[in-house]
């Protein structure tokens, strides 16, 4: 479907009511803890401004929720409406101007769409930070947008048509973005599902997960520096280490994601013992889970996530092999039974009661100690040619892809693992009100070191399946 046809469909599509998960992100959004996430692209070579800005406009036209604003004053839930040409200007400058902390700042969806772009260019390198509002799309939706953006830019530089190189999209599928493929599978929630939803939500609301501590008196707040002007920090794992970690996980009948979750539990528990001396810890990790189905293949960028919360005790963290086994079993059940749908079901119930969602999110100080997501290999299906396993995009080569999810009050740290080309990065975002730059680097370093320890002590660090 061409851009003009997509535009005509988009006009008919709006207004579009919020889904419960979009409403969750809308209600939880606040200037001090914005529900936005950045994805940074680093290119070798200088981007051409005219072609890149045109590529952004053309790609946005294919994704209605990135070209929409919010009308909060109609009915029980807010709704998406056509932005009618309103779009934030692209912040384009030379590399001498820092990005600052704005890539993870607050976005007012009632004024402008939930996508901001910052570009810094030098003759040798270009940095692009795309900031998405999580009500508009999740990380997979953001990467879907980026993959198309690079194809359009490559085509414009070559002077060729980009329409035929992009996958077909059907904006009408956005009407079912909150269905998660249940209608296509002829699945209807029943009484048993309602009871499970109530039990899971009761546990989440009543549970008090550990909050990451910092030493009393430590100077707090991030300080601008060349390495953290994006608002998050990054460490790189070698491919040899990743291969070894995958082998260790496989030996235990687990996945790399399970193993990293186990190691993060160990680090969170040890961190609080070192910082505060408290040994009775109950760390909880929020794991975002994609709920996309085959029915969503042609859906434009949207938010199709659910959450699952892994709870463990200090005693669990004292037995690394058994801890990995329990994580392995729980994540397998999460995938098999699509358990995050029960989180969505609870949001749907809360959304029916005026004011309940916002009240619940303002009163509940924390659902999790940390957020963890292993995005996996990104942009692996791009039709673009590659140089040393990195995408050739017109006159530039995409060398690095990094990013982090948002954090909410009480959840002071988020960690995301991204693999692009032959590089795997661990990216950490922390709450600057409680973590200094040095404390953030220390925590990221401890997680990085724990992965090395896992490699060095295998197989004693894992259990048998």
Question: What does this molecule look like?
Answer:
It is a single chain. The chain is α+β, with helices and mostly antiparallel strands and 465 residues long. The chain has 2 domains: 3-172, Chloramphenicol acetyltransferase-like domain (Chloramphenicol Acetyltransferase, 2-Layer Sandwich), CATH 3.30.559.10; 209-298 and 310-337 and 358-378 and 404-457, Chloramphenicol Acetyltransferase. The chain is 35% helix and 21% strand. It contains 12 helices and 16 strands. The protein has helices spanning 3-13, 20-28, 49-60, 139-158, 191-206, 239-251, 256-276, 314-317, 320-337, 340-351, 356-363, 437-457, and strands at residues 16-17, 36-44, 68-71, 79-82, 91-94, 115-121, 125-133, 233-237, 284-290, 305-311, 370-377, 386-387, 390-393, 396-403, 413-420, 423-430. The strands form 3 sheets. A 7-stranded mixed beta sheet has the order 5-6-7-2-14-13-12, with helices on one face. The protein has a 6-stranded mixed beta sheet with strand order 8-16-15-11-9-10. Strands 1-4-3 form a 3-stranded antiparallel beta sheet. Helix 2 (20-28) packs across helix 11 and helix 5 packs across helix 10. It is globular, with a radius of gyration of 22 Å.
Q: What secondary-structure arrangement, pairings included, does this model have?
A:
Layout (H helix, E strand, L loop, with lengths): L2 H11 L2 E2 L2 H9 L7 E9 L4 H12 L7 E4 L7 E4 L8 E4 L20 E7 L3 E9 L5 H20 L32 H16 L26 E5 L1 H13 L4 H21 L7 E7 L14 E7 L2 H4 L2 H18 L2 H12 L4 H8 L6 E8 L8 E2 L2 E4 L2 E8 L9 E8 L2 E8 L6 H21 L8
Parallel strand pairs: 5-6, 9-11, 11-15
Antiparallel strand pairs: 1-4, 2-7, 2-14, 3-4, 6-7, 8-16, 9-10, 12-13, 13-14, 15-16
């Amino acid at each position: 479907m061409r851009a003009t046809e997509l535009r005509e469909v988009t006009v008919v599509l709006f207004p579009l009511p919020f889904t419960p998960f979009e409403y969750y992100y809308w209600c939880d959004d606040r200037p001090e803890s914005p529900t936005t996430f950045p994805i940074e692209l680093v290119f070798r070579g200088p981007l051409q401004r005219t072609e890149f800005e045109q590529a952004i406009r053309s790609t946005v036209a294919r994704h209605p929720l990135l070209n929409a604003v919010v009308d909060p004053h109609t009915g029980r839930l807010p709704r998406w409406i056509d932005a009618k040409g309103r779009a934030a200007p692209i912040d384009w400058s030379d590399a001498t101007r820092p990005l600052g902390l704005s890539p993870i700042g607050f976005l007012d969806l009632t004024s402008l769409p939930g996508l901001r772009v910052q570009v810094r260019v030098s003759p040798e390198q270009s940095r692009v930070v795309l900031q998405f509002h999580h009500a508009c799309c999740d990380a997979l939706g953001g990467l879907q947008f980026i993959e198309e953006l690079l194809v359009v830019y490559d085509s414009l530089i070559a002077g060729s048509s980009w329409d035929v190189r992009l996958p077909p999209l059907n904006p009408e599928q956005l009407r079912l973005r909150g269905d998660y493929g249940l209608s296509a599978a002829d699945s209807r929630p029943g009484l048993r599902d309602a009871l499970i939803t109530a039990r899971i939500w009761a546990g989440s609301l009543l549970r008090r997960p550990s909050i990451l501590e910092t030493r009393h008196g430590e100077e707090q707040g991030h300080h601008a520096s060349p390495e953290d002007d994006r608002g998050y920090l990054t460490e790189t794992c070698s491919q040899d280490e990743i291969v070894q970690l995958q082998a260790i996980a496989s030996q235990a009948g687990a996945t790399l994601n399970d193993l990293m979750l186990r190691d993060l539990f160990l680090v969170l528990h040890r961190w609080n013992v070192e910082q505060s001396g408290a040994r009775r810890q109950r760390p909880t990790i929020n794991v975002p889970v994609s709920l996309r189905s085959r029915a969503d293949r042609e859906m434009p960028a949207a938010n199709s996530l659910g959450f699952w919360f892994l709870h463990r005790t200090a005693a669990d963290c004292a037995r690394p092999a058994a801890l990995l086994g329990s994580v392995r079993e729980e994540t397998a059940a999460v995938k098999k039974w699509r358990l995050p749908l029960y989180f969505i079901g609870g949001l749907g119930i809360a959304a029916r009661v005026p004011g309940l969602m916002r009240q619940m999110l303002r009163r509940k100080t924390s659902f999790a100690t940390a957020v963890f997501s292993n995005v996996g290999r990104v942009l692996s299906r791009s039709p673009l040619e590659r140089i040393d396993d990195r995408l050739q995009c017109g006159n530039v080569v995409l060398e690095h892809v990094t990013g982090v999810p948002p954090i909410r009050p009480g959840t002071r740290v988020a960690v995301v693992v991204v693999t692009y080309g032959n590089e795997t990065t661990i990216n950490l975002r922390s709450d600057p009100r409680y973590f200094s730059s040095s404390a953030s680097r220390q925590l990221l370093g401890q997680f990085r070191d724990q992965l090395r320890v896992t490699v060095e002590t295998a197989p004693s660090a894992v259990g048998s399946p």
